[in-house]
Amino acid sequence: MRVQFWGTRGSIAKPGPSTARYGGNTSCVEVRSARGTLVILDCGTGGHSLSQKLMSGGAKGLRGHILISHTHWDHIQGIPFFYPLFAPGNEWDIYGPRGLGQSLRETLGGQMQYTYFPVPLDQCRAKIRYHDLVEGTFDIDDIKVSTHYLNHPALTLGYRLEADGVTVVYACDHEPHTRILATGEGRMTGQDLRHAEFVEHADLLIHDAQYTAEEYPAKVGWGHSSIEYVLNLGQHAAVKRIALTHHDPLRDDDAIDRLVANAQANLRQNASSLDVFAAVEGQVVEVAPSGVRGSVRLKEEFQAERLIEPTLAERSVLLGMADTKLTATLSETLRAEGVQPKCFSSVEEARALIAKARPSVAILEHHPPYLDGMEMCRAIRAQENDHEYQLPVVMVAAQENQAAGTAAGVTDWLIRPFTDAYARTKICSWLLRTACQRSRVLISEDETRHSAGPLVRGRRAPMAQRGIENKRVSKNVIRTDKSALLWMYSRDIAPFETPAFSKAVGDLIVRATKRPSDMRDRSAVM
Ligand SMILES: [Zn+2]
Ligand SMILES: [Zn+2]
After folding, report:
1. Cα-to-centroid distance, 394 and ligand 2 (Å)
2. Distance (Å, whole) CA 437 – CA 311
3. Which residues surround ligand 1, an ion (CB under 5 A)?
């Protein structure tokens, strides 16, 4: 794979003599497989020069894929100036993390509204397809892509690309989940361990390294890493090479030189084989196979673009807090995402709500002596009998206690103080993960039923069997916009349905989701 950096600056473009060598443009990386598949990671202001290069080879017939980590300005500002999107005859796919509200297309279109830009996004003349992603996997021609949520105050995806026998991982913007790790010391546990697994055995890891450990205490919650943490991560995850990027706009070229020299000296001292450099705008890196095979598709495969509306529609969040101000703040945050919080103050209430409301996430506060969140978490875990999926429990506390948390069954932490954006993002990522997991269960149930044997055909099946028939098409239902809406609609009205109405909705779903092969089957017996 061939990698070229077109933008290496973080947060805001910073052109000028002090940044001339490492570059002043914001995040944009071009990746090409040996077969020529073009993937662009983020489209900050660096995307402008890349677009000029692409157009210089002829404007027509350009085909490429833009993977957006998140929609903060420094990662999307190149899109309105990315000329291949405006030329007819070109074909582009744009991917980014799906949110709970507006789509990726709407968000990208927002920065091109009349007030901000003279040409709206829908006037781009290239054929553009938009892909709203969750955590999972998908293929772009010969490149296998895996996605994983990063820790940032906006829904952000890291991308792991595998092709030509090599692995390139792009993780920008990201902050260690456990703050102590920013010092470069400490053990990877919990969500930090998940992040390490995601980057494991990368031949090239392109990672956010905006700050130093010394600067980090003043930047907690800003969603960026220290260089010391990235080096620790790289060694832990047996990464071959690290490109430090998202350089702080206040850091001049000489300062970056010094940081890299220090990092290399530390690695030599530790006899580490890890190679580290700071990404330079314009730099080309040929990534050759290292001989050590990367762990391909670490997670159970789940289509990152699967439609999860049916399971996402059921979202609800439990809040178990002692602090009323905190309850009010989090409730407001949840309502901004269209989620109605369900508050409880005792273990009994929590149990009743879990049984009745089937929540997607529980947020508990550990604030002794007012509230023992750990005890409450243990009580919730003791009640669980669903082995297919464990309710994510996010613990709000003044500091982490990983050992006690793991023992109690805590999934993730929200350490005070935190910003609204940070809490909102963390909650959204867990709501989306729960919806994905429930979709996964639904699909596997569907597949189990599907393989159980042929359906009764040629006569009207009894009600129970028609239920099975509707389940049988749920795989198609999830993959089809219209049918997913129908499915949700029918679920909403299910408690009030009459047999005649149920039959009408059932028939409608079957018709909406029928594949051509099903239609042939059916006509043969009718
Ligand atoms: Zn950024
Ligand atoms: Zn950002």
Report:
1. 22
2. 9
3. 74, 173
Contact status, residue 179 vs residue 224, Cβ threshold 8 Å: no
Name the nearest CA neighbour of 167 among 210, 198, 188: 198
- How far apart are the CA of 10 and the centre of ligand 1, in A? 5
Q: Which ligand is nearest to the CA of 10?
A: 1
* Spatial separation of the C-alpha atoms in residues 500 and 122, rounded to whole Å: 43
Q: Read off the pLDDT of residues 320-373 as tens digits, 9 standing for 90 and up.
A: 999 999 999 999 999 999 998 999 989 899 989 988 888 999 999 999 999 999
178 Cα to the center of ligand 1, angstroms: 20
For the CA of 156, the nearest ligand: 2
pLDDT tens-digit profile of 109-159?
999 999 999 999 999 999 999 999 999 999 999 999 999 999 999 999 999
* Spacing, Cα 480 to ligand 2 middle (Å): 32
Instruction: State which amino acid sits at residue 377.
Output: C
Cross-strand bridge partners of residue 38:
32
Q: How far apart are CA 291 and CA 481, in angstroms?
A: 43
Reported as a pLDDT band with limits 50, 70 and 90, residue 253 is very high
User: Helices 324-336 and 420-450, interaxial angle, to 10°?
Assistant: 60
* Type of residue numbered 95: Y
pLDDT score, position 496: 41
Separation CA 190–CA 196 (nearest Å): 10
Ligand 1 center from residue 369 Cα (angstroms)? 39
What is the CA(241)–ligand 2 centre distance, in A?
23
pTM for this structure? Answer: 0.85
